[in-house]
TrEMBL record, chains A, B:
<protein>
    <submittedName>
        <fullName>Aminotransferase class III-fold pyridoxal phosphate-dependent enzyme</fullName>
    </submittedName>
</protein>
<dbReference type="Pfam" id="PF00202">
    <property type="entry name" value="Aminotran_3"/>
</dbReference>
<keyword id="KW-0808">Transferase</keyword>
<dbReference type="InterPro" id="IPR005814">
    <property type="entry name" value="Aminotrans_3"/>
</dbReference>
<dbReference type="GO" id="GO:0008483">
    <property type="term" value="F:transaminase activity"/>
</dbReference>
<dbReference type="InterPro" id="IPR015424">
    <property type="entry name" value="PyrdxlP-dep_Trfase"/>
</dbReference>
<dbReference type="InterPro" id="IPR015422">
    <property type="entry name" value="PyrdxlP-dep_Trfase_small"/>
</dbReference>
<keyword id="KW-0032">Aminotransferase</keyword>
<dbReference type="InterPro" id="IPR049704">
    <property type="entry name" value="Aminotrans_3_PPA_site"/>
</dbReference>
<keyword id="KW-0663">Pyridoxal phosphate</keyword>
<dbReference type="InterPro" id="IPR015421">
    <property type="entry name" value="PyrdxlP-dep_Trfase_major"/>
</dbReference>
<comment type="similarity">
    <text>Belongs to the class-III pyridoxal-phosphate-dependent aminotransferase family.</text>
</comment>
Length: 433, 433
């Protein structure tokens, strides 16, 4: 493995990120279990791309069968892409009735910004602070969550997203809502004063990178309303929150009671096969389409469509969204139990099978308690030592992040929670010494 | 098929481009033959993505085998991506010794621009006039070859690429070279005067979209030298010209005797599987890497790497680059023969298995002869009526474009050329009536 790491450095370079102080080399995987080069098996509590389970035979067979039959662009007709577009649109609410296929979430968000800029005639963009939406040049200037040398664009305003479980836990929800929306108003006013206007707000319904913030009821709807009033579009980035991840709904935005103007997709869409999409209304496409020759060579090819269709089919047939919802209820209860034993962890955050909690240096609520990234990292490494993969997120990297494939079964959720209990106990014992 | 077209309009919309007045619906393909829904077979003289042949069993097997084993991002170690990176780097010249994997040519070119902008501290970009390099926002403002509502960026200068077979056919090559490079100097000066500086030149070694321009010897090297002197980087877009397409070399830039600072790849790389890459030097990556957290979720996954490796293996084992070179010689001779019968077509253009010719309204060289897009379109449709797929390119859509998979065999090249002879005769006869 040391040799492989060295060879990797000499080809991909040393900057491409790797998990863990001692990186893991995986050689195969099945459902929610990864096998390392040394033969050890790891429970996957982290990966959201293999959505219906690693190497799901239905998805593999769909890819193999279609790749062996025909893989071609959309300048010829093929029923696969149309069948899949219909299936995908059936999961979305009116007026979203058109799909543009891409190859990644980054391509999708970049395209959504193009559409919003052209629609509004403006460039101003609202993002939530400490979010990330992709690696293209247009998106690199629209993040405060990842390091990009370009820096924040002059036309971008990050807005602080409230969190009733952390920073705003001590304030009444109505007050948090009012002050947060006042911050949105101020950001919009700032964009307008600077002459950028308002093109869009781009947000992830789970506020994942931000730390799974629990926002006040009505916050997202209020944000969307304000942006639309200012002439901008609402872009729902469903790369992380979509395809049933939250259990409660198929799409994250549905949990907030809104329908975005543009819905962007990626990661879990093809269970690892590179595919993304932008959903929009015919009216919006009728604006963009005639004014731009948009063509995506790989976008909508029949193999990608077959992979995407297989994911939708498996989600339905195996009842994975429902399973995510019921699994989540159990997890939430278990995490509350862990809080009693370890008062230095915050309340359960997230939705469905994207969950976690804030980690503090002392009991939550105690004077001087602050987020503790070191302790959070120690939990992640303790879990790894017990062969369970998880990670951490948030502004200070002090929110534990658990996000298993939806294929995880109740007994495996049990292993995840029990291992977490052991790891918390170990880290707590260590911090006492 | 009418029903499928209607369903497509209601899901993908009517703007997604389709070939032919009566679009073709394909249901399967093998090597260089596509089968339509009505059972008719078409010889593929157009598609460069299925590079080693449609549904090549080696590539299909590699994808199926790896997808059934493991598909994961690069935050864990996996030997597949490293093996493939080594194979790919072995085809490139020093100092190109690092690879960043992406999912498409668009992602690759967008990333190359980010790297060049950061390296130079400038934004100014030279492109060849009537070129196209991708669909992201940063690339939409850098094209004059496709309609993008954004319009050309203030920091972009399109330079007219000479063509010794068409616009510049009557001038001495040395004079064309001097005047063309003087235009480069002027564009650089214009960027500097406007305060944009020079970040890069981005070009396709075949000048495909432009119309397969035959440039004077030393033109590309002179262009590269001038950009570097001005502090910019040379980005070789090998999405069309790479992987042996030109027969003469594995990479198009090698035909011009230069090594770009950044080489971008896409289309044929995975024979249809969505994969792209940027090759660069360790020195350049050492600048970009520490200042940017670049992570591409699907980029470098083991399934994409397996597809890419299979393409390299098949190219080598089946001697496809050599076959492209020998096939090209025969095609060139045949096209010269056709010129004698049809003096209204220009000399054979392009390299290897990307070839074509200009189509005029009257014999080449006759007073008042101008490019004839209508006649070019008629040839494309006449070929389609004879079950051979080709297309057209260039500023006036009057350059016939033929670009079969490299897997095409001599007998099939014969069918392509004979069908072209018949189609030219038909179109000539029609134009006499």
């Amino acid at each position: 493995m040391a040799d492989l790491l060295e060879r990797r450095y000499k080809t991909l370079g040393p900057y491409s990120p790797l998990f863990y102080a001692q990186p893991l080399e995986f050689v195969r995987a099945e459902r929610v279990w990864l096998t390392a080069a040394d033969g050890q098996r790891y429970l996957d509590g982290y990966n959201n791309v293999p959505h219906v389970g690693h190497a799901h035979p239905r998805v593999v067979e769909a890819i193999a069968q279609q790749a062996g039959t025909l893989n071609i662009h959309t300048r010829y007709l093929n029923h696969r892409v149309v069948d899949y577009a219909e299936s995908l649109l059936a999961t979305l609410d009116a007026p979203l009735d058109r799909i543009i296929f891409t190859n990644s979430g980054s391509e999708s968000n970049d395209l959504a910004l193009r559409i919003a800029n052209q629609h509004s005639g403006a460039r101003g963009l609202l993002i939530s602070d400490f979010s990330y939406h992709g690696h293209t040049q247009a998106l690199a200037v629209a993040t405060t969550g990842l390091v990009a040398h370009e820096g924040l664009g002059a036309h971008v305003r990050p807005i602080r997203v409230p969190d009733l479980d952390a920073a705003d836990a001590s304030r009444p929800e109505a007050e948090v809502l009012a002050s947060s929306l006042a911050e949105v108003d101020a950001a919009i006013a700032s964009l307008q004063e600077a002459g950028h206007g308002v093109a869009a707000v781009l947000f992830d319904s789970l506020f994942s990178t931000e730390g799974l913030n629990r926002v006040p009821s009505g916050y997202v709807a209020g944000l969307a309303k304000r942006v639309r009033t200012a002439g901008g579009l609402v872009i729902g980035d469903e790369v992380q929150s979509g395809f049933g991840r939250t259990g409660r709904s198929f799409w994250g935005h549905q949990n907030h009671g809104i329908v975005p103007d543009l819905v962007t997709m990626g990661k879990p869409m093809g269970n690892g096969h590179p595919i993304g999409a932008v959903a929009l209304s015919a009216a919006l496409l009728d604006e963009f389409g005639p004014r731009n020759m948009y063509f995506n060579t790989f976008g909508g090819n029949p193999v990608s469509a077959a992979a995407g269709q297989a994911v939708l089919d498996v989600l339905a047939e195996e009842g994975l969204v429902e399973r995510a919802a019921s699994g989540a209820a159990g997890i939430r209860a278990a995490l509350e139990g862990l809080r009693r034993d370890h008062p230095w962890i915050g309340p359960a955050k997230g939705e469905g099978l994207f969950f976690g909690f804030d980690v503090y240096d002392r009991p939550v609520g105690e004077a001087g308690a602050v987020p503790d990234p070191g302790r959070t990292k120690a939990i992640v490494e303790a879990m790894r030592a017990r062969n369970v993969l998880i990670s951490r997120i948030g502004r200070t990297d002090s929110v534990l992040k658990m996000r298993p494939p939806l294929a995880i079964e109740p007994g495996e959720v049990g292993i995840l929670v029990e291992t977490l209990a052991d790891s918390l106990a170990e880290v707590e014992a260590l911090s006492r010494t």
